[in-house]
Write a structure and sequence with these properties.
alpha+beta, five-stranded antiparallel β-sheet, four-stranded antiparallel β-sheet, 7 helices, about 15% strand
Length: about 325
């Protein structure tokens, strides 16, 4: 007796190829595997070029790669608080020229951003200038030219260490250097490490916790994200620290904080009623659907801008 043909449940599903192009319009509509014309409202998988948002992320990464952060020491007379933008730029430009003169290298400032807390973000003309300023002797001459009135801070990359055993003493002296040796990392590539939640706020019986790790260069950060990190014979999963969109604690809308909010009434982040979130008596802390629907487009946009089509979590520098 012949056997009945076996039908695969997924035999009628058309699998899109990687490089599929949109077909030209025809008077006779194409049929699908089920015999019906395709739904024009459905998106067609195409091999689209890299979006402009990803290009913008790469451009911003290249700008950050040639930026330095200077923190003026409070009370200094060389860069006082009421100094003008032009005077600050001129003094820093002269200090750069003086520091790079023995190396026969010329560099200058492309842009200067003065932060509200007094910090200075200096964008240099090239990454080579930044590399020269980070050298020990050049770094020392640069600070002396500024009358030692600022603190030179290196840019770091933040990683999240997942499920770290709480019995690991991450604050003990020499742990970072020991981790660099065990994981075959460059010397002084790990800057700092701390618990995300303070240990005194942990519930009884907790055995795992998350921690933040600061790394000096994107190459090391990408390696740890790909391979993981060994701490005291524990293989720790590592991921990039993704900053959430700014949300107002007063009106629960995105793009501003409560200090700059113009709303007349408070909106609860739990039940969306007109009271403060701290005063809510709701049983479960869940945001309403409309709140997350307002967040979704911004999350998608920021995901494309920060990661986009990049295969690495941090775009590598061109050193």
């Amino acid at each position: 007796m012949p056997k009945a043909p076996q039908h695969n449940l997924y035999s009628n599903i058309a699998t899109p190829k990687t490089h599929t192009q949109i077909p030209a319009y025809s008077a006779h509509p194409a049929k699908t595997t089920r015999g019906y014309p395709p739904n024009p409202s459905r998106p067609i998988a195409t091999s689209a070029p890299q979006p402009a948002s990803a290009d913008a992320a790469i451009t911003r990464s290249a700008i950050r790669a040639r930026q330095i952060l200077l923190e003026p020491i409070p009370g200094n007379l060389f860069l006082p608080e009421n100094i003008s933008h032009e005077t600050t730029s001129s003094k820093i430009n002269m200090a750069i020229t003086s520091a790079l003169a023995p190396n026969n290298h010329q560099g200058h400032i492309k842009a200067l951003i003065q932060l509200r807390n007094g910090g200075l973000i200096v964008e240099l003309d090239s990454e080579l200038t930044l590399t020269r300023l980070q050298e020990h002797n050049t770094h020392k001459r640069f600070l002396q030219a500024l009358d030692n009135s600022v603190i030179f801070k290196d840019r770091t990359y933040t990683l999240v260490l997942q499920y770290v055993p709480v019995n690991v003493l991450i604050n003990r002296t020499g742990l970072l250097r020991l981790m660099e040796g065990k994981n075959q990392l460059a010397d002084n590539s790990l800057t700092s490490m701390r618990w995300i939640k303070p240990p005194h706020k942990r519930p009884p019986g907790q055995t795992m916790a998350f921690a933040l790790l600061q790394v000096n260069d994107p190459e090391t950060a990408n390696k740890l994200i790909k391979e993981g990190l060994y701490i005291d014979r524990n293989l720790i999963r590592v991921k990039k620290d993704k900053r959430e969109p700014i949300c107002c604690a007063k009106c629960q809308r995105f793009g501003h904080i409560a200090r700059n909010c113009n709303a007349n009434k408070d909106t609860c982040g739990t039940c969306a009623d007109t009271h403060r979130t701290d005063d809510c008596n709701a049983y479960k802390t869940v945001r309403l659907l409309r709140t997350w629907m307002g967040l979704l487009p911004m999350v998608q946009k920021r995901t494309v801008l920060r990661e986009g089509c990049l295969r690495q979590a941090f775009p590598p520098t061109n050193k």
